[in-house]
Structures are given as structure tokens and as C-alpha cells.
Amino acid sequence: MKLRSIELAVPDPVAAAGFLTDIWGLAPAGERAGTHYLRGSGPDPYLVALEPSDSEWVRSTSFVCSEAELAAIRAAISRAGWPARTVRSDDPGGGHGLLVELPDGTILRFLAGAADVAPIDGFARPSRRVRPVRLTHVVFNATDAEMMADAVENVLAFRVSDRTRGMVFVRCNERHHSTAFARSGLTSLNHVAFEMDDLDAVMRGIGWMRDNGFTPAWGPGRHGPGDNVYAYFIAPFGPVIEYSTAVETLAPDHRVGGPDDWTWPEHRIDQWGVSDKDLAALRCAEERFRCRRDWLPEPLA
């Protein structure tokens, strides 16, 4: 199983798509019924879908899986009694599967039979521009992060990788985290992280963003859990987005870390300690995109 895409509803998808292609570095992947699809350089048919809406919200976060994995998820959520609906995707890549509501209202979509596409070239050096490869993680705010981590472990067979004072990091494969739940007291989208080719691509991305009037809200830096390099920005259409690279790959015998394993010297909040964090601006952006339950669950066969 792997994380593939996030589907967002926004008041102006044309402007949002323009920023994500012209500045952030994604490539157009088509438009269907007013929804704009944007891809990276990797084989995923799209990473972000932007559909028109009168307000900002998260429609779903999509994972692709095998038929066997989908069958196991179906059986597990049926036993757990979670609201869910069978779906057939009309998005690029197609596929069929389940739309699932987690206990706090977060919506995940699991698709089997979804097709990949041919990779495309990124921006050639010495261009200052960069092109993300894929999504590396989508993080959610949670009113009860431990409850959410237990839920996805017990029902979806995800696994907790690490715990800090701020988050519980969860994986669906060997990569350190495909999602995480922030201990925030509300349910919303925390941020979306885009995988870059390497450290140089992250740094060139920061420079290109600065050239276009966007300074990092946090970064560059290197996290403890996951060991990934990061730079966070606030997109003009609302969400927190991240350039990231080199997230850790875990061995089968990985020991789950606790908050005491991730402590830094005073006034430092990452391994490098070279940048500040705009807490107020990030918090405001992290509260904007909520999950909206606008679909009716149906009994699973």
C-alpha cells in the first residue's frame, strides 16, 4: 500500500492550480468537470485534485493498494462498524475501492486497480525550479491523536513508527510515515508533504520560492522522527505545504520511539536548529481545511 494523492475543495481551483504549477512545481494532469489534477514527476497519475467549492475542505486522502489489501480493509472496517461507501474512481488512474470515515471524521480513500502513468522529467539544472516526485505524507490534526493512531493500527493495519510530544507518526509501508496525527485539539489538515529528488532539490526549491515572494514558515531543517529534510510554506490558497526528502526507511524490527527519544537543546526544534518557525501563521493555516462529511455511508456487503 502507498499514499498517492489528496483531494481538496477550494473556492478558486484555477488560481490554486496556477500556483501549484507555476511556482510550486507540479505539472498539469488534466481537468474533469471543473476539477484540476496536478502530478509530480513520478508514476502517480496525480498528487493533488482541486475541485470547485464555496468553501475550503478536504474531500479525501487516497491510498492505492492490492485487491487483497482492499479485501482485508473492507472486512476490518465492517467489523469495526466504521462508516464507509464503495466507490469507483472517476479521477485519473481510475480504480475501485472504499471511502472510509475515521472515528474523528477524517476521510480516507483506498483504491485497488488504479493505473500508473509514465514518469516525466523534472526541471533540468541549472534551472532554479524543482518538480516534486510524489506525496511523501499527509498529516492531520486530531482531537485525540493516540485514539486515532490506535484506530488505524487496529483496523487499517497501519503501524505507529514514533511518538513525540506533538505527533504520533504512522506508516502504511516501510517508509517512516505516510501520515501522522498532531496533538492539536481539533480535526483538520495539518500539512501536505511533497517528496523531492534530494537535498539539493529542496534547497533549490526554497530559493525559487523566495524568488517568487514566498519565504519558509519553517525550515530548512531536518526532523528527528523520519530523519527527513523539510521546508514548510503556506500556499496562497490556504494549506501548509512542505518540500521534503530522504524520509527514513524502517527495518521490520524497528522500535517505536517515545517523546523522550526526541529532545533537543533549549530553543531548538529540529536536528539542525538553523531556522525559526512561524507558529502563529502555521496554526492559522492548519485550521483552514476541515473534513466535511457530505456523503451518506452505506452498508458494506
Describe what you observe in this structure.
Helices cover 20% and strands 34% of the residues. With 301 residues, the chain is α/β, with parallel strands linked by helices. It has 2 domains: 2-113, Roll (2,3-Dihydroxybiphenyl 1,2-Dioxygenase, domain 1); 134-286, 2,3-Dihydroxybiphenyl 1,2-Dioxygenase, domain 1. The protein is globular.
Structure at a glance:
By secondary structure, the chain is α/β, with parallel strands linked by helices. It contains five helices and 17 strands. Strands 1, 2, 3, 4, 5, 6, 7, 8 and 17 form a nine-stranded mixed β-sheet that branches. An eight-stranded mixed β-sheet has the order 10-11-12-9-13-16-15-14.
Assign a percent range to the helix content: 10-25%
Q: What's the shape?
A: globular
CATH homolog superfamily of the largest domain: 2,3-Dihydroxybiphenyl 1,2-Dioxygenase, domain 1
Q: How would you name the oligomeric state of the polypeptide chains in this document?
A: single chain
How much of the residues is beta strand, in percent?
Answer: 25-35%
The value of Rg in angstroms is 18 Å
In round numbers, the mean pLDDT is 94
What is the architecture of the largest domain at the second tier of CATH?
Roll
Tell me the number of structural domains: 2
Elements, N to C (H/E): EHEEEEHEEEEHEEEEHEEEHE
CATH class of the largest domain: Alpha Beta
